[in-house]
UniProtKB/TrEMBL annotation:
It comes from Olea europaea subsp. europaea. InterPro entries: Ankyrin_rpt, Ankyrin_rpt-contain_sf. Signal peptide: none annotated. Pfam families: Ank_2 (PF12796). SUPFAM superfamilies: Ankyrin repeat (SSF48403). SMART domains: ANK. It comes from the Eukaryota. This is Ankyrin repeat-containing BDA1-like. Gene3D superfamilies: Ankyrin repeat-containing domain. Coiled coil: none annotated.
Length: 224
């Protein structure tokens, strides 16, 4: 005779097969013990990683705090949807709560940072539009999104970010330094990225004269 499953087991089984009907009338306190664990693979993480959008949104409605919880690998549910390519799930998550873009995971990397690293300019633009403040978030190495774009040679993402900063009149962010004291221009020059150097200089990023001799040579075309 088959033993009946415990409520939590029923929930996880429902996630596994994507049966949203199981959540109807579910006691939200069932999710409380899971929420007390600092790092956990919650039903929301599982649903997000499989692109079960409606199921995931229902879980968030029952227990919103789960959307900010990290799993043992340091990823939030939005991180997992993003890294597994479930763009519709990502967009629905952001529509539900735009501040999820700012949830810092492993090494304090946010979904915005990941969009920059992968040069996904469509999602990057959507994230900036939904949550403008997310551009200020720093990784564990004190790198903002612009630092990450140049460090990873993601010029398309760099252009999107610079355009956004111009629009928001926040170009001072480009003068910030990472934990090693490197500015955007230092990084672009040291990795020989002429277009990034050119755009940086055209925006009047002015390093201290004392720093200029220390910048590696970088071929910059300042013409049209």
């Amino acid at each position: 005779m088959e033993m009946p499953m415990e409520p939590t087991q029923r929930l996880m089984e429902a996630v596994r097969i994507g049966n949203i009907d199981t959540l109807i009338g579910l006691d939200p306190y069932l999710l409380e013990p899971i929420d007390q664990v600092q790092f956990a693979d919650t039903p929301l993480h599982v649903a997000a990683s499989r692109g079960l959008t409606s199921f995931a949104i229902k879980i968030m409605s029952l227990k919103p705090s789960l959307a900010r919880k990290l799993n043992p690998e340091g990823f939030s549910p939005l991180d997992l949807a993003l890294r597994n390519g479930y763009v519709d799930t990502v967009r629905k998550f952001v529509r539900y709560d735009c501040d999820l873009i700012r949830v810092q995971g492993k090494e304090r990397i946010t979904p915005l940072h990941y969009a920059v690293k992968t040069d996904d300019t469509d999602l990057l633009a959507a994230f900036l539009q939904a949550c403008p403040q997310s551009i200020n978030d720093l990784t564990i190495q004190d790198e903002n999104a612009v630092h990450i774009s140049v460090k990873n040679k993601r010029y398309r993402a760099f252009r999107v970010l610079v355009g956004w900063l111009q629009r928001m009149d926040s170009l001072e962010i480009l003068d910030s330094v990472d934990e090693k004291g490197n500015t955007l221009l230092h990084t672009a020059a040291s990795t020989n990225q002429p277009k990034a150097c050119s755009l940086s200089l055209s925006l009047s990023l002015s390093p201290s004269p004392s720093l200029l001799p220390s910048l590696p040579p970088c071929k910059v075309n300042l013409g049209k």
